[in-house]
């Protein structure tokens, strides 16, 4: 799943970068870093880092506004000093140049990334539980019972006689009593995984939300361009007037977006992840009784005598 998340993020990042390379070439090179930082932040969020989708998205738009303002709204600006850039970043938070599109993007991503983040954390917890119980300590009483079950028949020369099924179950259940107590919590854990995978595949679909970032950014930029004069007037009051090149360089600011023909590749990747989800939850459902049935699993096979009327009951051959 971690690999699938990372693949979806990289795919969406390339899809988003293509927006600037095809529609906003004037700022494509400078926009590459903010785009990269956005998807890095989203990746860290899914992996459980102490961050939020809102902070990642708003930080991206803070970095984007100076580029949009100086390359599209006022392409004649030549003096884009650090102080002026920082002023534009801070002004973005007050004048909201991207309208409701930035908030909508936060809303859509928060839904889908939450389910992915929770699933990622839940799987990490499951691994921790399994790794811990894999090395469960045996008590002295358990060790004595296991020796008695496995080797006491040898003292009578009965090396081919194996334990009776009922005897094996009694010994194993006694040895694994503490582990079997995890049964109720494990069942609840499996149900939680099922809920989270269903959430991811339903209205909170990760891949679709990530692929929608490109269009959200485009709509936000177009909104800012259409309100360019008002934004310029406000920015001039707050940040002052930067140096301008002579002549009108603001023609053809709005560039039509060329859609990238990646639909087929995206659908294939999307289908693959959905199949992985279904296979995974189907597999996990089969392990719902794992901790309750460990004794039965251990006593099912070569350890016990199943197809014979002769077996060892702990005291004698019966």
From TrEMBL:
Topology within the bilayer: Lipid-anchor; GPI-anchor
Cellular component GO terms, alphabetical: cell surface; extracellular region; plasma membrane; side of membrane
Domain of life: Eukaryota
Places the protein is found: Cell membrane
Pfam assignment, any one: Glypican
Keyword tags: Cell membrane, Glycoprotein, GPI-anchor, Heparan sulfate, Lipoprotein, Membrane, Proteoglycan, Signal
Keyword Lipoprotein: yes
The keyword Amino-acid biosynthesis appears for this protein: no
GO BP term, pick one: cell migration
Bilayer-crossing regions: none
Broad class of where this protein is predominantly found: membrane
Purpose of the protein: Cell surface proteoglycan.
Protein family membership: Belongs to the glypican family.
Protein name, as recorded: GPC5 protein
Organism the protein comes from: Oreotrochilus melanogaster
